[in-house]
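Problem 12. The chain below contains 393 residues. Write out its predicted structure in token notation.
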Amino acid sequence: MTPLAISAYTLTTALGTGREATLDALRAERSGLKPGQFLDVELPTWIGEVAALANAALPADLADFDCRNNRLAWLGVQQDGFADAVLAARERWGAHRVAVLLGTSTAGLLETELGYRRRGPAGELPEDVRYRDRQNTYSVGGFVTHAFDLRGPSWVVSTACSSSAKVYASAARLIAAGLVDAAIVGGVDSLCLTTLYGFNSLELLSSEICRPWDAQRRGLSIGEGAAFALLERDASAPHGWLLGVGESNDGYHMSTPHPEGAGAIAAMRAALADAKLAPGDIGYVNLHGTATPSNDASEDRAVSAVFGTATPCSSTKGATGHTLGAAGGVEAAICLLALREGLLPAGLNVQQPDPALTLNYLHRNAQAPLPAALSNSFGFGGTNASLILGKAA
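Solution.
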């Protein structure tokens, strides 16, 4: 692919709002996870909750879209000058030439849950339950499109944990085809009870803080997050570059990855081919790294098959939690920060390294010049995406 300029980007997670808050936490090797109290429910797990959401609200003219997911999206686009960059792109290219391509998995599901708590005597939902604008999967795409008065292609991808990585590929294809000149990409996923109870019923939640690559890892910690990037055909002072994308679907199992990482290997190799890079050109790999026994083992085999065991790697989910449909966007933004700062972020919470895992897993931060980084996002059903990002220079 022709490299695409990333003219703006931002992220909001349990680590804080915006790039600098995130960078401060990464440098301090500080996790944003906390014991699992959410609303009036307490589960024996840890979660990554965005504290600033407690006071977040939508403007009156966007009230039809009001739900936790869209409040998180609105909080996200207000950071790091992102909203101003989108308005500048709309002015430059025209509203019909800017796409909105986002990923999510939970969308406005919490609104449905809260609505069911308030059913009437005959089981009817309250009148303020607005499925179209607040609860369906496309809600966040419609919200962002409406908020910025954009007229280009707009859709939401929901392929579990690969969702907000796959939209980078969608944007690259639209721009290459000449259909648009810029695209807002990324994803938003907010905490909800269905997700917490669902993963708990699958016995995938850890009762301790999640510990990717630890010998005694017991599962994941769920987080929430919003991440956005503005891709443009060209830009005068980009924050970085999208160099290549790779996608695959191995369809091995509903919720378990291929044990040898066949789909993950295919996605990473496709991304390298797309970027016209060799494995040795990648200075850091941000692992999907969910801290479940099977996921980490499968990814370790896959990454070592492509890169060997020397390339520095880590999972940042021990800091942010697993933000599900937003994970690809969140971790792409973390890679852009790593490239800017030459910071290889540590994988937090490891107490006992797993001797069966062979990658060069970072237990402490490291500094090194980084020309390019790869970010992995692998979802349920064997849907896989790998992004290669390049330094601004």
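Discussion. The chain has one domain: 4-391. Students who got a different answer should revisit the alignment rule from Section 12.3.
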